[in-house]
């Protein structure tokens, strides 16, 4: 029997790429998204099972991840209701023991405090983070807490830390490093389609279990200049 995979946040840009890659690889796919976003999954009609509902609704997640070998979660810190933390916790609690759990987030998440951020990144994150919190749009701390719980869990997790994203044709599997600050990552740019590719490939890559890879597009200048030297 084929493997079953769940995409939490399937209707977003990253989520739809995840669904496409998963279908291409022959997985049976279950997708979770907000009720109002179900039409965004129309291109997959008849090929995936859609469970509509808030991604931090524990009953919705329990139903969606039931029997899944892998769960890919798009962690987003929208609003002020701890959406990312609630989503991550529901996945951690309800995925079957031993399932591969892959989460998305940004470079700003650090697992061990050894990431070295360019001043431009820190300045942008500080200004954007405060402003977004002020207008109650996004709560970056929520994604930090969500990832803290993932790192502390005894599940088979991988947290894929995305650089700045752009749309466009695939350039292939991104290059990754263990810490931001590695010169290979300096270009800070990845295609969304390839971010999704990395997450789906991670399902079968046990070397990424308990890793928090920071990724960059494989054709970016920094990746090309430092190709082959894994940190
Ligand atoms: N954007 C970047 O440059 C960037 C950089 C680094 C890392 N990342 C990471 O990449 C992942 C995808 O980010 P993305 O920016 O590319 O977005 P995206 O793929 O378009 O996904 C956005 C997600 O947020 C949901 N969403 C939007 N507004 C919401 C609301 N008010 N309440 C609840 N859910 C809401 C969307 O659901 P609906 O379809 O229902 O609207 C969708 O699932 C995230 O984990 C992010 O941290 C992004």
TrEMBL record:
Residues 9-205 form the NAD(P)-binding domain. Transmembrane segments: none annotated. SUPFAM superfamilies: NAD(P)-binding Rossmann-fold domains. This is NAD(P)H-binding protein.
């Amino acid at each position: 029997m084929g493997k079953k995979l769940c995409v939490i946040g399937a209707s977003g840009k990253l989520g739809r790429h995840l669904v496409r890659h998963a279908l291409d690889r022959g997985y049976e796919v279950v997708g979770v998204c907000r009720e109002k976003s179900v039409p965004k999954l129309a291109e997959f009609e008849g090929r995936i099972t859609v469970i509509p509902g808030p991604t931090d609704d524990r009953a919705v997640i329990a139903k969606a991840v039931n029997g899944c070998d892998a769960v890919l979660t798009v962690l987003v810190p929208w609003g002020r209701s701890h959406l990312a933390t609630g989503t991550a916790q529901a996945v951690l609690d309800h995925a079957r023991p031993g399932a591969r759990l892959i989460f998305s987030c940004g470079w700003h998440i650090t697992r061990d405090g050894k990431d070295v951020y360019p001043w431009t990144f820190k300045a942008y994150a500080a200004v954007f983070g405060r402003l977004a919190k002020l207008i109650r749009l996004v709560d970056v701390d929520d994604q930090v807490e969500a990832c803290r719980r993932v790192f502390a869990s005894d599940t088979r997790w991988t947290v894929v830390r995305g650089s700045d994203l752009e749309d466009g044709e695939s350039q292939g599997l991104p290059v990754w490093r263990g810490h931001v600050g590695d010169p290979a990552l300096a270009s800070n740019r990845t295609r969304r389609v390839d971010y999704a590719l990395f997450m789906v490939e991670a399902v079968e890559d046990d070397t990424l279990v308990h890793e928090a890879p920071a990724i960059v597009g494989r054709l970016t200048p920094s990746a090309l200049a430092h190709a082959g030297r894994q940190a």
